[in-house]
Every structure is written in C-alpha cells, then in structure tokens.
C-alpha cells in the first residue's frame, strides 16, 4: 500500500518541485498561450506566441534582461531590456518546433527560466499529380507524411482498392517523413490508373493525395556517345578518302 501511495504522489511532487524552481530561478516567464508545468507551449503553424520575462521578487525590478533562442542571443531594442522584456514569435513556423527560449539576468546567468515550443501540424497532403512512365521502366511515387505528432497510419490504393503488393510487384517504404511506393518493369494492365496515398493524423484526421499514372510505349534509346563517335569516324573516313583521290578529281574537272 505504501509503495502505491508513493507512486501516486511522485509525479505531483515532481511538478511541485519544478514549480518552486521556476519561481525561485530569479526570473519569471509569462506566456500566451500558457505553458504547461514542464515549460512546454503547445501551438500550431501560423499562430502567435507571446513571451514576457521579468525579475522575480528576489532581484531588482529594473535589472537588464537577455533572451536566447536555442542558445543564440535574440536581438532586442534598448527599451525592451530593462525590468521587463517581451518576445513575440509570429507567425509560428516549422523551424520553431522544439525551439527553446531562455530569459536570464545579464549580471547573473544562473537567474534564468526557459520555455520550449511544441508546434503541431498535419501532413501536407492534398490535390493530385499526373505521372507519365514508360512501360517496362520503374514507377516511383512519393508521399510526404511529415507531421507533428507523427501520423498513425499510411495506406496506398489503386483505383479505389488497396494496392496488391504481390500481384503488382510493389514495395512500400516509410522513413517517417516520406512513404514511397515503387514497382519495377511496369505494365499497363497492372500499373496504370489512379493511386491514392492516405495518412491519418491523431489530431488532424485524414489527409490524402492522388497520383494519376499513365503508361506510354517504350521508346528505343540510342546511346548518345557511341552514336556521336560513329558519326565522327564516318566523317573522317570520308574526308581521308576524298583527300586521297583529290588529284584524280582535279584531273577530271579540267
């Protein structure tokens, strides 16, 4: 019974200690939207995050403040340094995900507080794309599934039915950023049609993108370099033959 009670109160004790630490760190950061007990601010793309920092009661109210973003100094105007300092992140971008903003006293680097942005965004999937590929060549379709939080599932369909990996010789790979559907030596009867990549986000729902694949007849490709080399050989052979018969040609032309 005692061990269960300890497990129940251990998270609460941690948050209380964290709260006390932020209050006695020398500075206080107020945020809009508000941060959680771990200093994480939940936000979304194109939103605005406001941060306001000021010394706590243990320091002079007019002390100079510094802001850091991932350890690099944030440029502030002179009137935005003394006693109270604010930073505005607008609009929130992909690059702001995971960014840590730290405010501290210039004269005392240990008097500091930090918050971190957690930017959520859906996979950028929409619309359709036309793809033309020659018969007997390779088909490669790329589906961007980069999202925060990560998508919970990804699926591929062909003409409204789930892609038959075995029958079509397909393979699917997923690295967390891109889902790739490939097929070697495509055939019209097996591979032509409308493909759809569908990703499901735990908070943004379902997003999809279509690929309209058309197969064209295989063309005979002549290697360029051997072809050019052959033309050069023919040209110089004809030139030498002409030069060797030049005297006879001149005689005939008189």
UniProtKB/TrEMBL annotation:
Sequence intervals crossing the membrane: 224-244
Cross-referenced CDD domains: Ig (cd00096)
Domain Ig-like, chain residue ranges per copy: 34-120, 123-216
GO molecular function list: cell adhesion molecule binding
UniProt cross-references to PROSITE patterns, sorted A to Z: IG_LIKE
Residues spanning the signal sequence: 1-26
Subcellular location: Membrane
Pfam family, one: Ig_3
Primary site of residence: membrane
Keywords (A to Z) from UniProt: Disulfide bond, Glycoprotein, Immunoglobulin domain, Membrane, Signal, Transmembrane, Transmembrane helix
GO BP annotations, alphabetical order: cell-cell adhesion
Any one annotated GO CC term: plasma membrane
Topology of the protein relative to the lipid bilayer: Single-pass type I membrane protein
InterPro entries (UniProt xref): Cell_adhesion_signaling, Ig-like_dom, Ig-like_dom_sf, Ig-like_fold, Ig_sub
Name of the protein: Ig-like domain-containing protein
Organism of origin: Eleginops maclovinus (Patagonian blennie)
């Amino acid at each position: 019974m005692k061990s269960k009670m300890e497990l129940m109160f251990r998270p609460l004790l941690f948050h209380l200690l964290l709260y006390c630490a932020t209050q006695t760190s020398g500075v206080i950061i107020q945020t809009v939207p508000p941060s959680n007990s771990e200093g994480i601010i939940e936000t979304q793309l194109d939103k605005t995050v406001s941060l306001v920092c000021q010394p706590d009661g243990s320091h002079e109210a007019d002390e100079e403040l510094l802001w850091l973003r991932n350890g690099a100094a944030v440029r502030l105007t002179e009137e935005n340094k003394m006693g109270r300092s604010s930073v505005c992140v607008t609009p929130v971008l992909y690059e702001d995900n995971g960014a840590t903003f730290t405010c501290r006293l210039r004269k005392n680097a240990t008097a500091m507080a930090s918050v971190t942005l957690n930017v959520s965004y859906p996979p950028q999937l929409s619309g359709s794309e036309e793809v033309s590929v020659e018969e007997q060549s390779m088909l490669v379709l790329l589906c961007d599934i980069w999202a925060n939080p990560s998508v919970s599932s990804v699926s591929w369909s062909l003409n409204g039915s789930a892609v038959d990996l075995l029958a079509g010789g397909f393979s699917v790979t997923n690295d967390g950023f891109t889902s790739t559907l490939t097929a070697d030596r495509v055939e019209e009867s097996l591979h032509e049609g409308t493909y759809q990549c569908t990703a499901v986000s735990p908070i943004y729902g379902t997003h999809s993108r279509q690929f309209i694949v058309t197969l064209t007849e295989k063309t005979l490709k002549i290697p360029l370099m051997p072809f050019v080399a052959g033309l050069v050989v023919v040209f110089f052979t004809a030139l030498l033959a002409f030069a060797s018969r030049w005297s006879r040609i001149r005689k005939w032309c008189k």
